[in-house]
Design brief:
Blueprint (H helix, E strand, L loop, with lengths): L4 H6 L1 H4 L5 H9 L2 E5 L5 H11 L3 E5 L24 H12 L4 E5 L8 H7 L4 E4 L4 H14 L3 E7 L2 E7 L7 H5 L11 H4 L5 H18 L8 E6 L4 E6 L25 H5 L3
Parallel strand pairs: 1-2, 1-4, 2-3, 4-5
Antiparallel strand pairs: 5-6, 6-7, 7-8
Bound molecules: zinc ion.
Zinc ion binds next to helix 8.
Length: 272
Amino acid sequence: MNFTNEMMERYSRHIILKEVGVKGQMKLLNAKVLVVGTGGLGAPAAMYLGAAGVGTIGLVDFDTVDLSNLQRQIIHQTKDVGKPKVQSGKETINAMNPDVNVVTYNEWIRADNILDIINDQDYDFIIDGTDNFPAKFLINDACVMAKKPFSHAGIIRFQGQTMTYVPGEGPCYRCVFKNPPPPDAVPTCRQAGVLGVMGGIIGTIQASEALKYILGLGHLLTGSLLTYDALNMDFRKVKLGEVKDCAVCGEHPTITKLIDYEQTACDMKDGH
Ligand code: ZN
């Protein structure tokens, strides 16, 4: 890829950072990040990754834009209501930054397609921007099996959490949360609500983890879970212990193929 004068100007605030420079910006332009879900978390994550010049961004979602999404899913606009979210997301990213190759997957992730999607562009990093436990466990297990780093996050009401998994460098999501709760045991955002900014705050942290991973900078949220309570404006970083017998990333895994956990009807339609 040629580094053009226009790129020099567009990314000048990155290039001036000695930790990034032209070399780092080239790494971003050559990097591939998959964003699963273009809702509350995925929308800001994908927009910041696009603005930063991540060269290939995959968007996965089977939903269409609903009026009730626009309170927080800022990648979509009122004119996009009814449009596939991946299409709307691609248009927003490319209007902002035509350097980005946006690859769209207009489908739900399932046990029988997620590895194909991850391997389609040999993505370097995956962002879990989904809103339901079956998808979160599926992304975790697929990333462990495909040896791919990913950022987990969840938001509801005034609370959020996020952690980063890098193969061989700390626990996976299943190490911490073991198994999905029974369907309908935990309320979704549709049932419980979510403050509009929660996805922006947590989704942007996910994007920063992806950028840091690609650039090889600083410390990632591996081995710890960051929780955020907006009402008390309280960020906490909880250190996660070693889990040796994890069912998927442990030395003797008992989960060796991907599982489609039961989703509630609400999960299926509920964007964060
Ligand atoms: Zn694990």
